[in-house]
């Protein structure tokens, strides 16, 4: 610890602190500086749902620094180390938000698509949507985010396959988009950035999807169309469940042999509601953590589908919902120093060779002859796209949250700030053991040149109590962005 402190003090004086860019090694995310395997402790971040991305009004979830500062401060309290953002505008500047999340010790998982026409694959007729302007858009997202050290990876597709029917059409196209993205990154980024797929947890097609994307065509070592990561949006743990009843045990058996990192790109079933989040103990416990690399809770803000941890009001104020405190308390039961301190195995794993026999479900695509890049795309891969907005980490300067934030019981949280972490530090939940605290931030420095080294302790003891408020709404289903 002392050794690290000395190093970071020197580093911080001369440059803006940054999280360490993670690498994929075998089935793990690995921090190359510490050699530790990384567990995603994530939250989906898309205020306004898909409408939060509005290119006509230059709006997306990472384009307003004041909003990101508020939310990063809240996520620091919660213990988050990764955000997943679905729909972004590649023509906007995301420097302030990306820099805030970087300083707060958080990585970003970025989807390259959007629900707008021409900005994602059509599941049923993917050939009608795979053309230059679409692929160019995915490359523009790469250009925009490739310069951020806290970029964890890109999703080339989200739930494009949701049943055998779309499993018949979409797989070769998703794999082709993955290939194009990886070739673009290879030519135009200065580090390897993982690219993978975020699957719907539809058990008929889950195994086939995983195998279709993780396999290597003709056993080729550097098959550029192979996914680097495989994630699933899973809602099978509901209420007071357990490792077996939730069928998490089946997922662990299924993915035991994975050649790429597997994690939940969404989880958090909300029937019953409010949630109790007992799956946290399972996800980061020993039954799962050697196979899974954590997960992303769905989702930060309350939207129509009722999965929010906080309510964002029109005036920019925020009300914490009971799920926020419940989740925080579940994280606090675990020792995240230990969870994040497991040495990576260092093993590379030979992926299965793609073959018809790898695909089990009748009707799921088993053809590994991929569509060639559409006309014009190879030129973009070779020369780069025309107009680009390249992001970079900037000095943020101001860490204070200006909006009103109310706790579950209505008390106003005072002195809320983002606390910039030292170089290489990631945000961790405050464990109950180390747990006592120092008020809500007023004793903390907001000076970037004085990095904090201790785990976060921003939560006052009173606020750690599980709120008694019971939400009155009952969700009956969900639409994912
Ligand atoms: C590619 O994307 C950039 C940035 O959005 C845009 O300016 C350019 O016109 C696009 N090119 C094509 C061929 O779609
Ligand atoms: C781990 O698995 C065992 C066997 O299925 C189960 O009894 C136990 O509750 C699980 N532990 C957690 C934390 O889920
Ligand atoms: C596999 O897909 C390719 C490209 O779409 C096509 O030319 C070929 O006929 C397909 N093979 C089979 C066996 O269907």
UniProtKB/TrEMBL annotation:
Family as reported in the entry's similarity comment: Belongs to the glycosyl hydrolase 72 family.
Function (record text): Splits internally a 1,3-beta-glucan molecule and transfers the newly generated reducing end (the donor) to the non-reducing end of another 1,3-beta-glucan molecule (the acceptor) forming a 1,3-beta linkage, resulting in the elongation of 1,3-beta-glucan chains in the cell wall.
Organism: Xylaria multiplex
Signal peptide coordinates: 1-18
Keywords, ordered alphabetically: Glycoprotein, GPI-anchor, Lipoprotein, Membrane, Signal, Transferase, Transmembrane, Transmembrane helix
Annotated Low complexity bias: 427-451
Molecular function GO labels: 1,3-beta-glucanosyltransferase activity
Subcellular location: Cell membrane
One GO cellular component, as annotated: side of membrane
Gene Ontology terms: biological process: fungal-type cell wall (1->3)-beta-D-glucan biosynthetic process; fungal-type cell wall organization
Region ranges (Disordered): 424-451
Top-rank taxon: Eukaryota
EC numbers for this chain: 2.4.1.-
TM region(s), chain numbering: 459-480
InterPro entries: GH (IPR017853), Glucanosyltransferase (IPR004886)
Protein name: 1,3-beta-glucanosyltransferase
């Amino acid at each position: 610890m002392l050794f690290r402190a000395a190093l970071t003090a020197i580093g911080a004086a001369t440059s803006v602190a940054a999280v360490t860019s993670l690498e994929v090694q075998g089935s793990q995310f690995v921090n190359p500086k510490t050699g530790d395997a990384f567990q995603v402790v994530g939250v989906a971040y898309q205020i306004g749902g898909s409408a939060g991305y509005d290119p006509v009004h230059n709006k997306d979830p990472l384009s307003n620094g004041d909003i990101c500062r508020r939310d990063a401060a809240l996520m620091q309290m919660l213990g988050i180390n990764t955000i997943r953002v679905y729909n972004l505008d590649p023509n906007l500047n995301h420097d302030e938000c990306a820099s805030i999340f970087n300083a707060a010790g958080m990585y970003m998982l970025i989807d390259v698509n959007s629900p707008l026409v021409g900005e994602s694959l059509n599941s049923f007729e993917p050939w009608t949507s795979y053309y230059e302007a679409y692929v160019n858009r995915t490359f523009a997202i790469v250009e925009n985010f490739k310069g951020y050290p806290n970029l964890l990876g890109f999703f080339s597709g989200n739930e494009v396959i949701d049943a055998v029917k779309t499993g018949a059409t979409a797989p070769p196209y998703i794999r082709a988009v993955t290939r194009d993205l990886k070739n673009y990154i290879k030519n135009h980024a200065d580090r390897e950035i993982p690219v993978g797929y975020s699957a719907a947890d539809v058990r008929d097609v889950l195994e086939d999807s995983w195998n279709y994307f993780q396999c290597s065509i003709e056993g080729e070592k550097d098959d550029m169309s192979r996914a680097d990561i495989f994630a699933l949006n899973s809602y099978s743990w509901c209420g007071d469940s357990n490792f077996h009843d939730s069928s998490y045990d089946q997922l662990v058996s299924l993915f035991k042999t994975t050649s790429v990192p597997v994690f939940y790109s969404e989880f958090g079933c909300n029937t019953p509601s409010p949630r109790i989040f007992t799956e946290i103990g399972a996800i980061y416990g020993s039954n799962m953590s050697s196979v899974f690399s954590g997960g992303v809770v769905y989702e930060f803000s309350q939207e129509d589908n009722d999965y929010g941890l906080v309510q964002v009001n029109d005036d920019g104020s925020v009300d914490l919902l009971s799920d926020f405190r419940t989740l925080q308390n579940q994280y606090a039961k675990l020792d995240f120093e230990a969870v994040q301190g497991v040495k990576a195995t260092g093993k590379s794993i030979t992926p299965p060779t793609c073959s018809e026999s790898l695909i089990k479900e009748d009707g799921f695509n088993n053809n590994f002859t991929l569509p060639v890049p559409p006309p014009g795309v190879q030129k973009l891969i070779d020369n780069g796209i025309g107009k680009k907005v390249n992001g970079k980490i900037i000095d943020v300067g101001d860490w204070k949250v200006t909006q009103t934030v109310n706790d579950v019981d209505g008390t106003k949280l005072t002195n809320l700030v983002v606390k910039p972490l030292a170089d290489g530090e990631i945000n961790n939940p405050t464990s109950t053991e180390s747990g006592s605290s120092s008020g809500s931030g007023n004793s903390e420095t907001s000076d970037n040149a004085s990095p904090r080294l201790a785990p976060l302790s921003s939560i006052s003891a009173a606020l750690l109590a599980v709120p008694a408020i019971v939400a009155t709404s009952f969700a009956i289903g969900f639409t994912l962005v």
